[in-house]
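REQUEST
  id: r-88c1
  op: predict_structure
  target: tRNA (guanine(9)-N(1))-methyltransferase
  payload:
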Amino acid sequence: MESKAVDQQPLSKNAQKKLLKQQRYESKKAEKKALLKQEKKREGERKRKEWEEKLAAAATEQEKQQLIESRKCLRKERMEQRSHDKEKKMTRLTNAKQNGQNVVIDLEFDNLMNSSELHSLVQQIMYCYAVNGRCTSPAHLWLTGCQGEMQDQLQRLPGFDKWIIEKENRPYIEAFQDQKERLVYLTADAETTLDVLDPKHIYIIGGLVDRNRWKGLTMKKAEDQGIQTAKLPIGMYLKMSSSQVLTVNQVVEILLKYLETRDWKTSFFEVIPQRKRCEDDNDIEWKEETEAKDDHEFKIHDIEREEEVEGKDDHKMKIHDIEQEETEEKDDHEFKRQCMS
Ligand SMILES: C[S@@+](CC[C@H](N)C(=O)[O-])C[C@H]1O[C@@H](n2cnc3c(N)ncnc32)[C@H](O)[C@@H]1O
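RESPONSE
  id: r-88c1
  status: 200
  body:
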């Protein structure tokens, strides 16, 4: 097959409009996040006040001690539950190394991204790892070609060293040199459409955040290397409002959802954000069914919130014993720690 040329293309009027729309969306998202942070802070203060009042209302010293003891017990139970959940997650991820579907994130593109795009990719990888850990049947995730700035940024993530993920400095083509026929590069530019996920295949996702600046790049790479390519069967199930090029974490999440449900339609509708989809009658029907789950951004936010709340609760209980003092930075740190563990 003839290789396609890959150029960095100037932005068309349409692309500029889209970029503006994206920027507006990002700023709204940041506003929402700030509001949420304030709300959480207020909620924390309210709960703390409630606890202090409860303590102050205790009629006797003995009653007060009982309240403190029962709170300590609750905390202990929660910690035990968390460590039990963590153990189960470790077991699932360790098993996935033996039996899980191989999914590779190709990290050989760090020279094509600016620092904010690199940062965004690192965040996406972090989400991929977190979502994989929650799956009942996780994939066997690989990070290949992990070098230079990319490696530095990943290494800076707290807990990255303990991640149960395959970290491979070599490019996938070297790491899997004896299994080249099993490699399938997933790319929106492929002619072949993915039908099912074959456990014998090793699916590769381009670790790239490029706002489609580097059109056709992964397709060309796969063609040059003589490996198979495939696109997700998005068009068979829904209409997109723009291109069918998804982000790395969306593709990983779709694959994970598919491994769980063996149903592409469910996987697409649960992962692809509403704003990226066109609504036709069929979609609307689906929208009603899945409305609460629809927005992927919302889901990511949910994960973030879940981690934050969990971390915060735990954190709050601990520091309550020390000084009943709480700072936003500590919360952030706790969230990161939880996310990485
Ligand atoms: C943000 S895209 C990068 C787009 C880039 N211009 C390229 O040439 O692939 C990140 C990666 O997600 C995967 N991907 C995105 N949309 C896809 C689709 N519709 N089908 C298959 N893979 C897709 C591809 O592996 C792609 O490299």
